[in-house]
Design a protein that fits this description.
heterodimer; A: alpha+beta; Ribosomal Protein S5, domain 2; five-stranded mixed β-sheet; 9 strands; B: alpha+beta; four-stranded antiparallel β-sheet; 14 strands
């Protein structure tokens, strides 16, 4: 990995002060998911942020947030905040790649202050893989044959990561692409679900998200899905953790139902965007 | 992959072939596998796996290091995938980096859940010293289905990895003394029974194939890679390719993958045990 020599790196021995926190007896070392479950859900079957297990966080969408970009969108899902900018279609940078179909370049980046642990300024491996996942998902939705020999760039910047960043990124990116008038087959809606032995939590926050940990007992995992509601097709599917096919089927059903519910919200946002554009064009015409 | 030229007739056959593929296999058959372990004398464990035309060499080196501050009682596994430029012309220069990164990250994810591997066995001195297993994967030739080939090779290499036994001598003030056993054959091995194998399923037309050849990969737009552990649980799933999948197809692919994975795991462990009990036969190496 090329080293970033222009920015000051912290001293090698720097570590997060949260490691010095006094841990409760049960918190981190809890091996049994049953204990974990008790932490996330209380006796009334309500989560820490007062949601029911099958409730998603409130969603806020806005387009036109980056004035210089062809299309842009901002999403807030609870405390997870993301911005997406779309540039293009423009000429392919690497002239050696002659392709009959257009190309999509995605960059997924966490802002250094977005997560609990400081991220580096350059893309690390996790961000590179997320960029690849995003690109594969969007390639299924965008009509690439409409812009041959051209490329479209999609840049995602996560401002605050409170769980399910990939899911929010999928929704935000498709909203930005649509507002940039890039021809698409369908919108991609992203959703995530956390699986615990006898419970499924839709749209987990960072605390509720699955963390890589070994020696867990059955059925403890995280699933992120990118779904195209009108076409009924899955364009992104990432599952981490232990599970079995029957449980995965259950999780998929919950997630696809949620995506169908979110689709009208995204469409409404796009409708408002178009209305605003027409209204401002009308004003310009009047002014002339 | 190197230029794949397919005629229309060949493409039609791949799409519509009724459980009979170009090389005579059924849809759930693997191509012949050649496996040999213990080839690299400087590595603590190594293996070379050849799946038809895909050739992978894995070397495991064990080193002492300090454990991660968040996980003081565990050792760790570090994967690194190197796509050699010899494997396929696309890997020239930095071309293979994206694929290498994806394979690396997916392997890491699939090893980090459930009961796949017991990392606390790798701890030498709690919070201060632990074993780090550097698993270096070299892709020598690319003949389709890299994920599966790599995962089987890694499992075999880990199976044969010998970790020297270290005793912690008296604590001299703050500095504990580590004593390496005098007997070079006094080693321990990790329990790799539950280590996951990756199964790639590509969707072509209305059906899906296990172990796709490069020609079949060309004809397919999407698929899933499923990590199935030795205890028949699914530890990670990722959709690959730029196409999309219907939820029902995805669910049936996951079911098939978990069954295939269970069989592959069983046969691999059986063969590794056979090789071990066969004793010191002459190594074939790369001569064949």
């Amino acid at each position: 990995m090329p080293v970033d020599s222009r920015r000051l790196q912290g001293p090698e021995s720097a570590f997060s002060y949260t490691l010095l926190e006094k841990k409760d007896a049960n918190a981190e070392e809890s091996i049994l998911s049953a204990d974990l479950q008790k932490m996330l859900i209380d006796s009334n079957h309500v989560r820490k942020d007062k949601r029911k297990p099958t409730d998603a966080r409130p969603l806020f969408l806005r387009t036109g947030i980056i004035s210089q970009a062809k299309g842009s969108a901002y999403i807030e899902q609870g405390n997870t905040k993301l911005v997406c900018g779309v540039y293009g279609p423009r000429e392919v940078q690497k002239k050696s790649d002659f392709r009959l179909n257009g190309q999509l370049f995605c960059e997924f980046k966490f802002a250094p202050f977005s997560c609990q642990k400081r991220r580096s300024h350059q893309q690390d491996n996790e961000e590179l893989v997320l960029s690849g996942l995003l690109r594969e998902a969007l390639e299924a939705a965008v009509c690439l044959h409409h812009f041959p020999k051209a490329q479209v760039e999609v840049n995602i910047m996560v401002i605050e990561n409170d769980g399910s960043p990939l899911a929010a990124a999928l929704t935000c990116a498709s909203l930005a692409l649509a507002s940039a008038s890039i021809p698409m087959y369908d919108l991609v809606i992203g959703a995530a679900v956390r699986q615990l032995p006898k419970l499924l939590l839709l749209d987990p926050t960072k605390d509720e998200e699955w963390q890589p940990k070994l020696n867990h007992d059955e059925n403890n995992s995280n699933l992120t899905v990118g779904f195209m509601p009108s076409m009924q097709q899955i364009c992104a599917y990432v599952h981490e953790g232990v599970s079995n096919p029957e449980e995965l089927e259950q999780m998929l059903k919950i997630v696809t139902e949620y995506c169908l519910k979110v689709q009208p919200v995204v469409q409404l946002c796009l409708k408002e965007t178009v209305e605003k554009m027409l209204a401002s064009e009308g004003e310009n015409n009047d002014a002339e | 992959m190197a230029e794949i030229l397919l005629s229309e007739a060949e493409k039609a056959f791949i799409h519509h072939g009724d459980d009979l593929r170009c090389d005579g296999r059924t849809r759930l058959d693997y191509r012949p596998i050649i496996l040999e372990t213990g080839l690299v004398s400087n590595a603590s464990g190594s293996s070379r796996l050849r799946l038809a035309n895909s050739d992978v060499l894995v070397g495991v080196k064990v080193e002492l290091a300090s454990p991660l501050s968040e996980k003081p009682l565990e050792g760790r596994l570090e994967f690194f995938v190197d796509c050699s430029a010899n494997a396929t012309p696309e890997f020239e220069g930095r071309g293979g980096e994206d694929l290498a990164n994806e394979i690396c990250r997916f392997l890491q994810m699939s090893y980090m859940s459930g009961d796949t591997i017991n990392l606390s066995e790798l701890s030498v001195l709690a919070g201060q010293q632990c074993w780090v297993l550097y698993v270096d994967i070299l892709i020598l030739e690319c003949g389709g289905n890299l994920y599966d080939t790599v995962s089987l090779a890694v499992k075999s290499a880990l199976y044969t990895t010998q970790i020297p036994s270290i005793k912690v001598a008296t604590m001299d003030g703050d500095q504990p003394e580590l004593e390496l056993s005098e007997d070079p054959y006094d080693t321990k091995r990790l329990n790799t029974q539950n280590v996951p194998c990756l199964v790639t399923l590509m969707k072509i037309g209305n059906h899906y194939l296990v172990d796709p050849t490069p020609e079949e990969e060309c004809c397919s737009s999407s698929g899933v890679v499923v990590a199935v552990s030795g205890s028949k649980k699914i530890t990670a799933v990722r959709k690959i390719g730029s196409g999309s999948l219907h939820p029902e197809s995805l669910v049936s692919m996951l079911k098939t993958a978990s069954e295939v994975g269970a069989v592959v795991n069983k046969i691999l462990m059986k063969k590794l045990l056979e090789e071990e009990t066969a004793g010191k036969t002459q190594k074939v190496g790369f001569m064949r």
